[in-house]
Amino acid sequence: xxxxxxxxxxxxxxxxxxxxxxxxxxxxxxxxxxxxxxxxxxxxxxxxxxxxxxxxxxxxxxxxxxxxxxxxxxxxxxxxxxxxxxxxxxxxxxxxxxxxxxxxxxxxxxxxxxxxxxxxxxxxxxxxxxxxxxxxxxxxxxxxxxxxxxxxxxxxxxxxxxxxxxxxxxxxxxxxxxxxxxxxxxxxxxxxxxxxxxxxxxxxxxxxxxxxxxxxxxxxxxxxxxxxxxxxxxxxxxxxxxxxxxxxxxxxxxxxxxxxxxxxxxxxxxxxxxxxxxxxxxxxxxxxxxxxxxxxxxxxxxxxxxxxxxxxxxxxxxxxxxxxxxxxxxxxxxxxxxxxxxxxxxxxxxxxxxxxxxxxxxxxxxxxxxxxxxxxxxxxxxxxxxxxxxxxxxxxxxxxxxxxxxxxxxxxxxxxxxxxxxxxxxxxxxxxxxxxxxxxxxxxxxxxxxxxxxxxxxxxxxxxxxxx
Length: 468
Description:
Blueprint: H1 2-12, H2 14-26, H3 35-47, E1 51-56, E2 59-69, E3 73-79, H4 108-127, E4 133-140, H5 148-154, E5 163-170, E6 174-175, E7 180-191, H6 206-220, E8 229-235, E9 247-256, H7 259-280, E10 283-293, H8 300-313, H9 320-330, H10 335-344, E11 369-372, E12 383-389, H11 400-406, H12 409-431, H13 433-447
Parallel strand pairs: 3-4, 3-5, 5-12, 7-11
Antiparallel strand pairs: 1-2, 2-4, 6-12, 7-9, 7-10, 8-9
């Protein structure tokens, strides 16, 4: 059985994959700065016999690794960026590793490494003559800022793929069957006039403009569809309080179930910014869309394929130590907190009393996953995604608890389950032409009325937002 050999390959490489995930976890790098992670993955993939290109147009930490020839071309999407200020040791209580340091609170150290493991296993099967086609791994930077895949898509790096496969750490084991949120990341830059604070009437405060814009945005919420969300952060102006600041920025992320809802809401937010500039005598110098993503178009045939492979695997292979780790974390939550965490990842009620989900959930009842990403390739290519449990029920992403798990054996065991799920799906797509055609037929049907427009300009370049 080809899949059995492929899964055995992942087991054979498990210690290498765990070390890679831990090494990336110990060297967390935020968006567009993932030099250690991208170089490490490039070396491992190249040493394993794949052809590797490290550094794509405008994205020095992006990579593509491939092996094989001809069709089908199956792409596996990986990520490896960390989050600001989420440093945490791999223990089930709060313990900062590096004061003010970053951390993998979204599990991208696992996400990318699981994809690498699947790609290497499929490469070996192609090399043995058991599978025909091309396997391609995409190392995608800056997902947390909704950038990497958007630029890679704009520049044609996905153009000849037949299907794209993806997984994400979670507390659930379930495929994505419903869309995720569309999102836009945008920075508003105001320019004013400096002055000594006692003569503030001479100056024009860009900080005042930002604060008034944020107040206006909060009033705007009442008059937008309730599904439209806005989150913002004030970027540092670097000026002491005894000087009127002439520069200040507000960084917004807008989210909604549909791109069309954001297209309608965004001009109104821009009008709020223009009004704030008028009220303060400043200039709205720039409105810069950094990145974003449309709602994800999910392929149900690929979702069914993931469920089939997860069931054949029997769920993640957690140990008694993993269950004990999960219990220690969950014991720190109130019942209400654990319930909210379970509901966030659509855990079925029958599992609420468990600490760690080792079962497969074939489908969820929600209409949209309350997350977003730079998953625009799903509008142009068949896209399948799956959640695999790497932390306990009750834990949210972007928390120190998630960071603790993604550097632990609990997270590594979930990652290996994900690698096997991806690899099993690749095996079937490469060996069953009828299945591949069914995937494409579904995509042609679901995408026939889509009119995709890339959300960044042809001359845009990836930009890292500095919080201070």
